[in-house]
Amino acid sequence: MEFAKRMDKLGTENSFEVLAQVTKLKEEGKNIINFGVGEPDFDTPLNIKKAGIRAIEENKTHYGPPAGIPDFRREVAKYVSKTREIDVCADEVLITSGVKPMIFYVMHALIEEGDEVVYPNPGYPGYESIINFVGGKSIPLPLLEEKKFSFDINDLKKAVTAKTKMIVINSPENPTGSILSQEDLEEIAEIAIKKNIWVLSDEIYGRIMYSGQFKSISSIPGMKERTIILDGFSKIYAMTGWRLGYGVMVKDLAEQVIRLQINVDTCSATFTQYAGIEAYRGLQDTTYEMLKEYRERRDLIVKGLNDINGISCLVPEGAFYVFPNVTKVCKSLGLQDCRELQRLILQKADVAVLPRTSFGVKNIGEKEEYLRLSYAISKENIIEGLVRIKNLLENNI
Length: 397
Ligand code: PLP
What we know:
With 397 residues, the protein is an alpha/beta fold. The chain is built from 13 helices and twelve strands. Strands 2-8-7-6-5-3-4 form a seven-stranded mixed β-sheet, sandwiched between helices. Strand 5, helix 7 and strand 6 (198-202) form a beta-alpha-beta unit. Bound molecules: pyridoxal-5'-phosphate. Residues 38, 98-100, 124, 170, 174, 202, 204, 232, 234, 240, 245 line the site of pyridoxal-5'-phosphate. Pyridoxal-5'-phosphate binds next to helix 4.
């Protein structure tokens, strides 16, 4: 069969390959501990579920405006204005079926063939895939363990050229759990303003932070008009399957994105947006409970990993991922890289983790090996998974 040439440029999330292996092993009757999935194990809070059900019962099941229900757009504008300390109006808010489609839309609206886009590496694989798909040139910005998985300003300066159209940032970050400091954000802002560059700021984990106050680059003077804020309901409200997110951007760009929305999905599910209104207006207690539990799990998993010979793990400050360095383990076991280690752990210990390579190819000169473990699973499973990994690795070294 012949497919359109552009399909060659589209990447995939190869975390889904590991998840397919997990499904197969489970079907074979294996009891797999799964640190692979990047989604909360919690259920959507009851008040939000009820609001969605109520909306269906009230027949809020028809087409809605492509940019989103006005009431919801206003609510999001209020929320973003408050949390980012900027003035956002409803016209600048576009509702989408999750954050993911907005990455696709914004890149289609802004990136020309040959434009360069700087993105974090290791990072969420969706960025690189879409940059390439729209004909842009993807320029990785290395995140370095010695900088707590932030970037080196010299690397950023080297990455930015006269062709740079956009810088993608993600803080707190998937897969490292790192946070960009105010200083980091100011450095990026200075370059973006000086060189007239857009910033796509993926803030989906903005409320899953364990220390300090969340900072958005859009709050820095001169940045709101060149930042596209991405945020959504999948993570903090455990609403992955509802498919609900949004982008905030200047009106001129929003108008272009609406044209894409009209052509692709007409609108996001109407009743889901009513659930979103409740998520923002209702009590936030359940989100605090989830956050408390994530923090305890984070401490448990970091300690457990550091107790395994040959593994060292920084304490991440946000999101629900850890990104341990496994270079020594790979060497001791004679493994070529973290992919071989991931396969070994899955086959011999029945534990699923993701290799660093699921989050981009290694940067030039990068010698270390890493895994990503999601701790959006129960404490019992975290303990059991770590015991299995420890037994496997320490008995084989
Ligand atoms: N951005 C990042 C950094 C993510 O980790 C994810 C999901 O894992 C997404 C975006 C997509 O989220 P959504 O479910 O809102 O499409």
